[in-house]
Design goal:
Number of helices: 10
Strand content: 25-35%
Bound molecules: zinc ion
Structural class: alpha/beta
Number of domains: 2
CATH class of the largest domain: Alpha Beta
CATH topology of the largest domain: Aminopeptidase
Order of helices and strands: HEEEEEEEEEEHEHEHEEHHHEEHHH
CATH architecture of the largest domain: 3-Layer(aba) Sandwich
Number of strands: 16
Distance between the termini: 73 Å
Helix content: 25-40%
Shape: globular
Length: about 425
C-alpha cells in the first residue's frame, strides 16, 4: 500500500507541478492586469467662497462611482456629510488625504481607502442648499458643486479666514444672490467673466502658418475686457487667464461661479479638416442637435462623443430645468447677430453657422448665462491671415461687445432671430425626446 501510494504520487507529480505553474502564471498575469486597470485617485482640488464650493477629484482613469448624503449623527460626533465611493480605486501615495476648507459650506474634504476596492471621498458639511455631482472626461474627474446660503455672521467670519485656495487674487467679497434676469429691462451686470480658450501646454487649434488658437483667444479676450470696461463703467470684467497658462476646463467654470459672475463668455477659434470651412458660431450648453456642433464640442472638450454622452447622463435633468438655458441662448443670439453684422460690414465671405446648443464642458453647471463663441476658423487660410490682423480682431471685439450690450440692456431678440431660435429649440426638444 505505501509503495503503491508512492508510485501514484510520483505519477501525479508532473501534472501537479504543471498545474501549479499554470496557476502561478495566471495569478501573476491577473495581478499585473489589476495593477494596470486599477484607478488611482491622484488629486483633490477645490475652489470656494461662502456660498459656493467646487471640489474636483482627479482620477487616473474612468471609474464607476456612487454618492450619498448622510444625515448629521451627533451620537458619533459626525456632521452632515456627502460621500462619493469610487469603485476599483486606490489612493495615490502622494495624495493629501485631508484638506481643511472652512468656508461656511464645507469643513473639510477627506479621502480614504474604504475597503480594498473602494476609495471614499467625504465632504464634511456645515451648511448646504444644493449639490451636484457629475464626471468630466479626459482626464477623468468627478466634480462636486456645493451651493448654499450662509448667515451674515458666517460670511463675516469667513472674510477673516485665509484667502481662498487656488483662486486668482482680488476675489470680490460675497454678494447676495442675484435676482433672475428679466426680459425687456436693463439688467444689473456687476461682473462679466471672459474666458480665453486654451493656454500653456494646450495650444488649441493651430493654423497652417502656425498661428495658435491660445494666442488669438488671449489677445481677443484682453481687447474685449478693455472694450467692455469702457462701455460698462460699473461692471467688473475678469479674465480666467491673463497670460499663457494652462487652466483645466472645470477650473474656468469654478472661477466664474466663485466670482459670482453675471455673464460668462468663453472665446475660441474653430478648426475643421475641410480647409474651406469658415464662419462664426455661438454656442450655449445643451444637447447637440447636429453632427458639426458635436464635433466642435468634442474638439474643445478633448472628449469623444461616447465620453460626452456619459457626462450628459449626469446633467440631463439640470439641463431641462435650468432657466439659464433660455437666457444663455438669448445672449448667444445677440452676440452672434452683432458679431456677424460687424464683420460683414468690412469683410467679404463672412458666414453665419448659427446659434447652437452643444455639451461644452466649460459651460457645465455654470451659475449664470454662459456662452462659447467660435470667432473664425484657424484651419481656413484666409481666416488665419485675418486673425493675425488687429483690425479684424477689433471688429470681432466690437461685435461681441455690442451683442453683450444688447443683452444687458434687455433688448429682445428680433422676430427673425426668434423664429430661428424657436425652430432651433423645437428641434432640440425633438432630439431630447428621441434620446429618452
Ligand atoms: Zn478652442
Amino acid at each position: 500500500m505505501p509503495e503503491e501510494f508512492k508510485i501514484r504520487l510520483f505519477a501525479m507529480a508532473p501534472t501537479a507541478v504543471r498545474l501549479f505553474i499554470v496557476l502561478f502564471v495566471i495569478s501573476l498575469n491577473t495581478s499585473a492586469y489589476c495593477a494596470t486597470e486599477r484607478t488611482e485617485v491622484v488629486g483633490i482640488r477645490h475652489w470656494s467662497n461662502p456660498s459656493y464650493t467646487r471640489v474636483v477629484v482627479d482620477l487616473s482613469r474612468k471609474a464607476d462611482f456612487k454618492y450619498h448624503l448622510l444625515k448629521k449623527d451627533p451620537s458619533i460626533n459626525k456632521p452632515r456629510r456627502l460621500y462619493i465611493d469610487i469603485k476599483g480605486a486606490a489612493l495615490a501615495k502622494a495624495l493629501t488625504k485631508s484638506i481643511p476648507i472652512g468656508d461656511g459650506l464645507l469643513k473639510s474634504v477627506r479621502a480614504g481607502q474604504y475597503d480594498k476596492d473602494t476609495v471614499r471621498v467625504v465632504l464634511d458639511i456645515e451648511t448646504l442648499e444644493e449639490y451636484k455631482v457629475f464626471p468630466l472626461t479626459n482626464p477623468y474627474r468627478i466634480v462636486i458643486d456645493i451651493t448654499g446660503k450662509v448667515s451674515e455672521g458666517k460670511v463675516a467670519e469667513s472674510k477673516k479666514a485665509p484667502p481662498e485656495k487656488k483662486s486668482p487674487p482680488g476675489t470680490a467679497p460675497p454678494e447676495k444672490p442675484k435676482p433672475p434676469p428679466a426680459t425687456g429691462k436693463a439688467l444689473k451686470v456687476k461682473t462679466i467673466v471672459i474666458d480665453p480658450g486654451h493656454g500653456g501646454k494646450d495650444p488649441g487649434a493651430i493654423g497652417k502658418r502656425g498661428l495658435k488658437e491660445k494666442d488669438v483667444t488671449l489677445k481677443v479676450s484682453r481687447m474685449l475686457k478693455k472694450e467692455l470696461e469702457g462701455k460698462l463703467k460699473l461692471t467688473k470684467v475678469i479674465l480666467t487667464r491673463s497670460k499663457d497658462v494652462y487652466i483645466p476646463l472645470d477650473e474656468r467654470t469654478a472661477i466664474a461661479n466663485m466670482k459670482r459672475a453675471d455673464l460668462f463668455v468663453s472665446v475660441h477659434v474653430n478648426a475643421s479638416v475641410n480647409r474651406k470651412a469658415t464662419g462664426v458660431e455661438t454656442y450655449y450648453l445643451d444637447y447637440a442637435h447636429d453632427k458639426e456642433a458635436m464635433k466642435v464640442a468634442s474638439r474643445e472638450n478633448f472628449a469623444s462623443t461616447e465620453e460626452m454622452d456619459d457626462v450628459l447622463q449626469f446633467i440631463l435633468k439640470d439641463l431641462r430645468r435650468s432657466g439659464n438655458r433660455i437666457e444663455s441662448s438669448n445672449l448667444a443670439t445677440h452676440i452672434q447677430t452683432k458679431l456677424l453684422s460687424n464683420l460683414k460690414r468690412k469683410y467679404r465671405g463672412i458666414k453665419s453657422n448659427g446659434v447652437k446648443g452643444a455639451p461644452f464642458y466649460v459651460l457645465v453647471n455654470s451659475n449664470m448665462p454662459s456662452i462659447l463663441v467660435e470667432i473664425s476658423f484657424l484651419s481656413n487660410p484666409r481666416d488665419e491671415k485675418r486673425l493675425r490682423d488687429e483690425k479684424y480682431l477689433a471688429e470681432i471685439v466690437k461685435g461681441i461687445t455690442e451683442g453683450i450690450l444688447r443683452y444687458v440692456n434687455g433688448e429682445k431678440v428680433s422676430r427673425l432671430e426668434k423664429v430661428d431660435e424657436r425652430n432651433h429649440i423645437a428641434s432640440v426638444f425633438e432630439y431630447s425626446g428621441v434620446r429618452q
